[in-house]
Amino acid sequence: MLVKDVMTIAIVKVSPDNSVRQAANVMLENHVSGIPVVDDEGHLVGIISEGDLIRRTELGIGAIASLAEMAMPAEERAGAYVKRSSWKVGDAMTSAPVTIDEDASLTRVAKLMLERGIKRIPVTRAGELVGIVSRADLLRAILTAKLDETAAGDEAIQRSIAVRLAENTGLEGLDVTVTVADGIVHLWGNVETAECKRAARIVAESVRGVRGVVEHFSRPDS
Description:
Layout: H1 3-6, H2 20-30, E1 34-38, E2 44-49, H3 50-53, H4 67-70, H5 74-85, H6 89-92, E3 94-95, E4 100-101, H7 106-116, E5 120-125, E6 128-134, H8 135-144, H9 154-165, E7 177-181, E8 184-188, H10 194-205, E9 212-215
């Protein structure tokens, strides 16, 4: 599934010349936590979010400099003052926001959100803004995702589980053995920690056709 399959195309936008108050009102009216900022030509120039507005002087932020702020260069402190005090969206927004192409995978989106600590990403096509993808869109993708196809039969189930155990599960190298009888999965091996045992069970349970899981892991020496 690609970004263009889940993104929101009815984009709520503001201009860099709009007021911060207008931007806050648009967020509240549309129940969103961030909105793209576009210029008169429709080019994306930034994004303004709750994170930007929570630092505003209207909330009493920044009136008295902290010790950390006092140690900042004067130019950096001046820039922070402008961002929290100016009435214009163009001054308060986050410039050069992270963007993603509409043909990117949802895996790439999720990684970007995790790496950058962001909740929404503007979507582009040939550099032009065509949508926005949010964490809520990814949640909807989870709800509509189809289960992986697995051929019928115990042997096919066993092969599928073995392949998944070798992926990024934390179980690689633990020599987990899998047998399947009438859809019941039996797990064997020297798996000692509760988290690794839980991971092995979830790997098995995630395969279509599995009717149950029985653990036979060896217990650590007392």
